[in-house]
Specification:
alpha/beta; 9 helices; 12 strands; RibonucZ/Hydroxyglut_hydro; Metallo-B-lactamas; NDM-1-like
């Protein structure tokens, strides 16, 4: 199936909404259509993009309206469009619900509009998105661990695997279609960013996907994938965990470690500068007193890594 913008049916009544190129903010979403009702997996980073997606889905859900939304995690590119889902039940893990209010749309709007170097930096990453006027719609139902719901005769299983990418990542399984929507447990063609960690939890989430009876794997970013794509993400995380731990043990500073690690085959992945955040997360996992830099510094470091020859 081609990696192109729009709605793609991957199995009967199972759709992926893809947004190339899958880089910062260009997330995927999903749709499960049952008998007379549908479930939406994630909204998009702003209202314009979310409305475009809903318009594309309109013919498919004409006889099966979207009554339920699942947010796989708290990053804005997976939930800022929630306000357009008026009347729908919004389900997320408890940890995701708590984390959602930490980075309100107004904060990103302010960073994008900031003067000088900070504004230039954030417009480099997020300048194509419109954060003004977004009102965050929080989950109306939360769960911990596992949660099962029915969508017009179809069982949908939510499995919490965070903290990993964020505090409360959730996988969404549709067993009758052998499908999983992974949220940002999978970035395909791009580099994972481990905001929270530990990396071991994310590695375990990859193992869970590989052990599951799934043929269709829809990532949070990038093209549709298979279990080989999951293994590649797992291999990256294990590599970073090992390389960062080695440098931590030798007493090297986290930022120095990120600049010292040679990504080798992983350097061809998009957004490879995310290594700076990932190494810092390993250090924080190994030393609870380790203080991570503020978000502006983290983005500066990611940008700096990507400007170097590799």
């Amino acid at each position: 199936m081609s990696y192109s913008l729009g709605l793609h049916e991957v199995a009967e009544g199972i759709h992926a909404y893809l947004q190339p190129d899958g880089g910062w903010g260009w997330s995927n979403a999903g749709l499960v259509v049952g008998d007379g009702t549908s479930l939406l997996i994630d909204t998009l980073f702003d209202l314009r993009l979310t409305q475009n997606m809903l318009d594309a889905m309109a013919p498919v859900v004409a006889a099966a309206p979207i009554d339920t939304v699942v947010n796989t995690h708290a990053n804005g590119d997976h939930c800022y469009g929630n306000q357009l889902m008026k009347g729908a039940e919004i389900i997320a893990s408890t940890a995701t619900a708590h984390e959602m209010s930490e980075v309100p749309p107004s904060m990103l709007a302010a960073l994008n509009n900031a003067p000088g170097e900070v504004g230039d930096l954030f417009r480099h990453f997020f300048g194509e998105f419109e954060f003004e006027g977004i009102e965050l719609a929080l989950p109306t139902r939360t769960f911990d661990g596992r949660f099962e719901c029915e969508v017009g005769g179809r069982v949908v299983e939510l499995v919490e695997v965070g903290p990993a990418h964020t505090q409360g990542d959730t996988l969404v399984f549709v067993p009758d279609a052998k499908t999983v929507f992974t949220g940002d447990i999978l970035f395909i063609g791009g580099t994972p960013v481990v905001w929270v960690g530990p990396l071991d939890n994310w590695i375990a989430a990859c193992d869970l996907i590989c052990a599951s009876d799934v043929d269709h794997i829809i990532p949070g970013h990038g093209p549709l994938t298979d279990k080989a794509g999951v293994v590649a993400i797992r291999d990256y995380l294990q590599f970073v965990n090992s390389e960062a731990t080695e440098r931590f043990d030798s007493g090297m500073d986290a930022w120095d470690a990120a600049r010292d690690i040679a990504l080798n085959g992983f350097s061809s992945w998009g957004e490879f500068g995310r290594l700076a955040v990932n190494v810092d997360t390993v250090y924080r996992s190994l030393d609870r007193t380790h203080k991570s830099p503020d978000v502006v510094t983290q983005f500066k470091r990611m940008f700096a890594l990507e400007q170097r020859p590799h």
